[in-house]
Amino acid sequence: MQISDKAVVTIDYTLTNDAGEVIDSSSGSEPLAYLHGTGSIIPGLENQLAGKSAGDNLKVRVEPAEGYGEYHESMIQTIDRAMFEGVDELAVGMEFHAQAQDGSMQVVRIAAIDGDNVTIDGNHPLAGVPLNFDVTVVEVREASDEELSHGHVHGPDGHHH
Ligand SMILES: [Zn+2]
């Protein structure tokens, strides 16, 4: 069966950046199962998987716009340490949930600390990074009615939540 909307797709994948460094991989853990056509994986990869079948291997390059988005300088701000009321120790790399100006929640990461000046970065860690996927399709099957109504994949033993 070919991959199309509402198929449950299982893939093995390795994700590298342009320097060849492995960013993420299913190797050594379970393959990734997802419900195709629901936007549960990044669009640039989902689009390329359409029409593929079990056993197919593909190498997909995903530009940031189809991946984790462009890097926006405007999402970097320097704020006063006092804004982190109630946090004892601040360190580069710490992540916080913050409310964006449009009311949505976003994750911001501390990018730098200089005295009382704390630089926060609201970009996704992979924003602006071209992604190179090496993907093997392990299995393609029909989704169950229950999976379709939930909008996600259930494990081999059925419901886990
Ligand atoms: Zn469910």
Global shape: elongated
Instruction: Find the count of extended strands (DSSP E, 2+ residues).
Output: 9
- Cα-based radius of gyration, to the nearest Å: 19 Å
Tally of DSSP helical segments: 2
The rounded distance between the terminal residues' Cα atoms is 28 Å
Mean pLDDT: 92
CATH architecture of the largest domain: Roll
Low-confidence stretches: none
Please provide the ordered H/E string of secondary-structure elements.
EEEHEEEEEEH
Count the domains.
2
Helix/strand-derived class? mainly beta
Task: Give a topology summary.
Elements: E1 7-16, E2 22-25, E3 32-35, H1 43-49, E4 57-62, E5 76-80, E6 95-99, E7 105-114, E8 117-121, E9 131-142, H2 145-150
Antiparallel strand pairs: 1-2, 1-3, 1-9, 4-9, 5-8, 6-7, 7-8
The chain binds zinc ion (ZN).
Pfam families: FKBP_C
Subcellular location: Cytoplasm
InterPro entries: PPIase_dom_sf, PPIase_FKBP_dom
Q: What attributes characterize this protein structure?
A:
2 domains, Chitinase A, domain 3, five-stranded antiparallel β-sheet, 8% helix, mainly beta, elongated, Thrombin, subunit H
